[in-house]
Specification:
This protein is α/β, with parallel strands linked by helices and 463 residues long. The chain has 14 helices and 15 strands. Helix 6 links the parallel strand 5 and strand 6. Helix 1 packs across helix 2 and helix 5 runs parallel beside helix 6. The structure holds NADPH dihydro-nicotinamide-adenine-dinucleotide phosphate. The site of NADPH dihydro-nicotinamide-adenine-dinucleotide phosphate has 21 residues, from helix 1.
């Protein structure tokens, strides 16, 4: 059987289920994509009615509102098992509840420390036979723990049945990026070291750690978004065209990019911390955890040799926006009187929020007698692509057994290899002002490539 015939939601009472998973399930029902039992498992002492109430609130708050018919349907599919993951009995009850299900999908929206316990119990109780499993990031906290997590998963599940969610890969703008690269022929001749001067990826968040200080203390920006989301974006930009059809061909090419990236060097890393972070609940008074990281990456390949890829991510910055800027080299010879600026020719990809856009920067002539130029931008924007689509798409794909948009073991390990040398940097963080663009020192990184491009605040979806 190809499609999963039951969905088991470990962590049904948790934050991720509330913010992302229930809204996605509601959307799936609305779109006719979900018609199998959904069994929540947690230990809050709840019953199914309480879980339904929680699901309703979650959809109201994070899913754009409840559609009565779809919600009734979802509620009729919901079941709940109350029990501790450390007890066998929980899994025996789950086995019973699964009835004749032949290919359940187990979604582990739980603390990573619980992964081994749950996976082993699933195996012992016979819940893992022909089953699939979804794991949420983080996939380990360094290379060694990622290898160990993969070993645990592989004891019970085949690689083909493991779906590692990095929701960034499933996001509409990242899909859009991949489509734009490989559905057009005009890009390929210039998409290389001969024409591209530099690549920048910025993930800026105006907000801070939002009460998750304890979580963030263990994580920091590099582990939270660089090792996974932003390296994935870099791979989409740098990968070769996949050979052959199907998801594995795409995943193969992305892994090759990670393998070609040099492990990061400390001196091309700037770590920052916003002023006030240490006053957050759960944060140490002398915390050296980075809420901002900027770095320069090198790719050893024929296509990209010598083209720097700059990545920066930070909290409490000036705006919330994720943007890629691929800057082209200046024309080789200037035939006009006025100098041609750096960064005048570029491709800009806005990866949200609100806006999903692709823009191309070009110099055009100002009307009039003189051969004077101005900066112009060709701009294409798609409406209505948001985060929830990623979860809906990914849960649907996992239920179908389609691995294309999920991280693969070798890719996860290769990505850890890149950041490993900078993970435990003891260098002090540089404090920066909330609302700014991060520490001063980061400016030096990009200075000879025209400086950082700071994304603008989106006024509206496509405005
Ligand atoms: P929470 O702490 O909010 O939820 C954890 C869930 O696991 C709860 O339902 C909890 O049940 C259950 N649980 C934990 N231990 C046990 C146990 N021994 N027995 C039974 N149930 C248990 O975590 P999140 O939802 O925030 O995160 C879940 C996963 O998703 C993590 O791996 C996280 O890294 C990842 N993630 C989270 C994101 C987010 O925005 N929250 C974003 C991206 C990834 P109970 O409440 O009943 O104790």
């Amino acid at each position: 059987m190809k499609t999963s015939d039951a969905l088991v939601l470990f962590g049904a009472t948790g934050d991720l289920a509330y913010k992302k998973i229930f809204p996605a399930l509601h959307s799936m029902v609305r779109h006719g994509q979900l018609d199998v039992p959904v069994i929540g498992v947690a230990r809050s002492g709840w019953d199914v009615e309480r879980l339904k109430k929680r699901a309703r609130r979650s959809i109201e708050e994070h899913g754009g509102g409840v559609e009565a018919q779809a919600f009734d349907k979802l509620a009729s599919l919901l079941g709940y098992i109350d029990g501790d993951y450390r007890e066998r009995d929980t899994f025996q009850r789950l086995r019973k509840s699964l009835g004749n299900s032949q290919r359940p999908l187990h979604y582990l929206a739980i603390p990573p420390s619980m992964f081994p316990t749950v996976v082993e119990h699933l195996g012992d109780a016979g819940c893992a036979d022909a089953a699939r499993v979804v794991v949420e990031k983080p996939f380990g906290r360094d290379l060694a723990s990622a290898v160990s997590l993969n070993k645990t998963l592989h004891k019970i599940f085949d690689e083909d049945d493991i779906f590692r969610i990095d929701h960034y890969i499933g996001k509409e703008p990242v899909q859009n990026l991949m489509y734009f690269r490989f559905a057009n022929s005009f890009l390929e001749p210039i998409w290389n070291r001969n024409y591209v001067a530099s690549i920048q990826i910025t993930m800026a968040e105006k907000f801070g750690v939002e009460g998750r200080g304890k979580f963030y203390e263990e994580t920091g920006a590099v582990r939270d978004v660089v090792q996974n989301h932003l390296l994935q974006v870099a791979a989409h930009l740098a990968m070769e065209p996949p050979i052959g059809e199907g998801g594995e061909a795409i995943r193969d090419e992305k892994v090759k990019v990670f393998r070609a990236m040099r492990p990061m060097l400390g001196h091309t890393l700037v770590r920052g911390q916003f002023s006030g972070y240490r006053d957050e609940e759960g944060v140490a008074a002398d915390s050296q955890v980075e809420t901002y990281a900027a770095m320069r990456l090198h790719l050893d390949s024929w296509r990209w040799q010598g083209v720097p890829i700059f990545i920066r991510a930070g909290k409490r910055l000036a705006v919330t926006a994720t943007e890629v800027l691929v800057t082209l080299r200046r024309p080789p010879h200037n035939i006009f009187d006025e100098p041609l600026p750096d960064q005048a020719n570029y491709f800009r990809f806005r990866l949200g929020p609100k806006q999903v856009a692709i823009a191309a920067g070009a110099r055009t002539k100002e009307p009039g007698e003189k051969m004077k130029g101005r900066e112009t931008e060709l701009f294409v924007c798609s409406e209505g692509a948001d985060e929830m689509d990623a979860y809906e798409r990914l849960i649907g794909d996992a239920m179908e057994g389609d691995p294309t948009l999920f991280a693969r073991q070798d890719g996860v390990e290769a990505a850890w290899r890149i950041v490993e040398p900078i993970l435990n940097r003891k260098s002090p963080v540089e404090v920066y002002k909330p609302g700014s663009w991060g520490p001063e020192a980061a400016e030096k990184l990009t200075a000879e490539f025209g400086g950082w491009h700071n994304p603008k605040r989106a006024q509206s979806r496509c405005g």
